[in-house]
Request: fold
Amino acid sequence: MLDINFLEKSWYFKKISIKTWDVLFNEWDKDNNLYIIISWKISIEKNIIQNDKTRRRKLSTLLIFDIIWESSTNWNERNKQVNAIAISNTILLKIGCQEKIKEFFLKFPLEWIKLLKHIIFISNKRLLKINREITTNYEINKNISEIKNINFESIFEIIEKMKELMLCTYILLFEKSPSFKDYYILRYDTRLKWKIQDNIIEIKEWDSEIKILKSSDINLDIFNLINKLKIWNDELWFIVVWRKNNIFNESEKNILISMSNSLSWIIRQKSIIQEEKNKNFMKNK
Reply:
């Protein structure tokens, strides 16, 4: 097991503290340090260009004993490929991989083996996470590619597949009412499989961060996730995902975001098809 106390007391590892929202490093910064979190959390984010604007997408949250930038131990590339930001006041250990790690290995070979084993464990855990994300995204995109007609039935089919892949108890799909504030249309409920819903529901309080959805019109259990589906630039659809006696980890949240983007594309295509039908109807009238 990794001996944090030994590393902390050694001359080779330097203890550093950063405050909430402080940046440990930015994407493309030159830095060959390896970091070990010894308290609290670091958010790993990637710069993404969307609609000619650069925004940050959260990739994962790293916790105590997580390693940051372990690849610096075995190659000379020093440019960071992600942003690392403190979610709360965070304490880390750092070691310069070009200057100090060889000295540490020669002086403390047993502690180096423990560190190496920990790096391998963390790397394998991340590879399994990435593999699951790739596999689930492949399954959803495969189902989408096999859709022959884009309609409510095909949308429900994808939601059922999402439920299966996410191992959740149920999923609800809401559409925002175009006419009334605080009113939503429940379009689909996986507890009533393959039945199109058209229930107009008043939701006074809706907060995806603290997982609140309050309504006197619908009986809902406490759920784990709300995700917004962007249609064009508007958040008109919402998906509620619930899993009994469990919460979703960071990897599963990323999977849901990716699958929700695919679902948004189908809903968008359905809207385009419906608009074309409406235009043709008006022309022929």
About this structure: DSSP finds five helices and 15 strands in the chain. The helical segments are 4-9, 101-107, 109-145, 152-166, 250-284. The longest strand covers residues 53-62.
